[in-house]
Amino acid sequence: MKDTLFILSQKLLPQHLLSRLVGRIAECTNPWVKNTFIKWFAKRYNINMSEALIEDPTAFENFNAFFTRELKPGVRTIDADENAVVSPADGAVSQLGDIEHGRIFQAKGRCYGLSTLLGGDQDLANTFVNGSFATIYLSPRDYHRVHMPVTGTLRETIYVPGDLYSVNQTTAENIDQLFARNERLVCIFDTEFGPMAMVLVGAMIVAGIETVWSGHEAPRLRETVRRNFQPQNPDPITLQKGEEMGRFKLGSTVVLLFGKDAVNWQQSLKANSALRLGERIAEKNAEETAVEA
């Protein structure tokens, strides 16, 4: 009954209006407003401020600055093995596995279309048909900067407007095509592992998605926006493994996509496995590595 009421509320609430209102509060610099909000949040979610570069939660300009706080150098170790794919964030595995028949598993028998996730581009989707996916959920208490799982050069981005349902386990199990219907930013990189997609999925009261190359990514007009960064760009955007690529203002989800036979997920990983930024989550396919050698 509780889950049913939660899902019903998700459908009835004015998602975008509520998110805009929360976004304004999150940007407020009034000391009383922002400190009250930050202290409540830090206590409610048991935030570990000892890992943050700035440990005093009231020292941040606003709630968003607190929420996207930087970590101290060295508190996360990036697996340096050139064949390793690392977790792009702190969080937990929602699902991972193979992309079968152009469909990605969501939860409890629910799937969504690969092409739909990528903004309806079938040619782009064909790049990842029969490939691999990992869906990583960032809870409110997690560190909310997203980093590169492998070194890559940005090829293009696609902003896809959509709904703003919450993206927790309850909604994943009850909302059809959740990650392919929410607002999202698709980032396509060329890597030594082949093409890689990082899809940053928005959610209820997420005040924004940012990237290190463009800042805030959601345009005012709710329409699909595609940006090509190659080959005309004389100064390509190449980010090293472990380097920051973006951030969420409030919690959400990252969906990673690799092509066929590109990577093998760590066998120990399964739904709800906890993840830390920089730890190995997959490695380059041994057969592919042997061919290159």
Shape assignment = globular
* Poorly predicted runs: 289-293
Radius of gyration: 19 Å
- Helix and strand sequence: HHHHEEEEHHEEEHHEEEEEEEEEEEH
Question: What's the average pLDDT?
Answer: 86
How much strand content do the residues show?
A: 25-35%
Main sheet summary: 9 strands, antiparallel
Given the structure, what is the number of helices?
Answer: 9
Structural class: alpha+beta
Q: What is the helix fraction of residues, given as a range? A: 10-25%
* Beta strands, count: 18
What is the structure about, briefly put?
The chain is α+β, with helices and mostly antiparallel strands. Helices cover 24% and strands 30% of the residues.
Please tell me about this protein's structure.
The protein is α+β, with helices and mostly antiparallel strands. 24% of the residues lie in helices and 30% in strands. The chain has 9 helices and 18 strands. It has helices spanning 2-12, 15-27, 31-44, 63-67, 114-117, 122-126, 169-174, 178-181, 286-292, and strands at 84-86, 91-98, 103-107, 110-113, 132-137, 145-147, 152-160, 184-191, 194-201, 208-211, 215-216, 225-228, 238-239, 244-249, 253-258, 263-265, 274-275, 280-284. Strands 2, 5, 7, 8, 9, 12, 13, 15 and 17 form a 9-stranded antiparallel beta sheet that branches. It has a 4-stranded antiparallel beta sheet with strand order 6-14-10-11, with no helix packed on it. Strands 1-18-16 form a 3-stranded antiparallel beta sheet. A hairpin with a 3-residue loop joins strand 10 (208-211) and strand 11 (215-216). The longest helix has 14 residues, at 31-44. The protein is globular and about 55 Å long. It starts with a helix and ends with a helix. The model is unreliable at 289-293 (pLDDT under 50).
